[in-house]
Amino acid sequence: MATLGLILGIISMIECWRPYVGFILAALGLVFSIIGVVKKNAGGKGMAIAGIILAVISILTGITITNWVLQSNKPTQQTTSAVVSTIEETTSERP
Questions:
Q1: Which of 9, 18, 54, 59 is the most exposed place for a label (fewest CB within 10 A)?
Q2: Long-range contacts formed by 17-25: CB under 8 A, 24+ apart
Q3: Phi/psi of residue 94, each to 5°?
């Protein structure tokens, strides 16, 4: 389980810029890594801890990138008022 969690954590770091794929892989990596840490007789606790760290970083990076993209696509108040004033000028010039 620890190895699977680490592998999923690594893949989720690569795919964290894709909103759904990266999040699902990170969540699975987190679950498998936690199982790897909790198991009593399983080896590879270091890999499981690394998987947890990578999955958490991937989730946080994915959330940050998604928020950044959503915020950059929002029109600002200045842009909106410039468009409105242009429309008003165009419509007022018509006879």
A1: 18
A2: 17/62, 17/65, 19/62, 19/66, 22/58, 22/62, 23/59, 23/62, 25/58
A3: -75, 145
Q: Do the Cβ atoms of 51 and 2 come closer than 8 Å?
A: yes
The alpha carbon of 30 is separated from its chain's Cα centroid by a whole number of angstroms, namely: 14
| pLDDT tens for the 95 residues of the chain, in order | 889 999 999 999 999 888 789 899 999 999 999 999 998 777 788 999 999 999 999 999 999 988 888 887 766 656 667 777 777 777 766 55
The pair of structure tokens assigned to 76 is 């600002």
Domain span at residue 57?
2-92
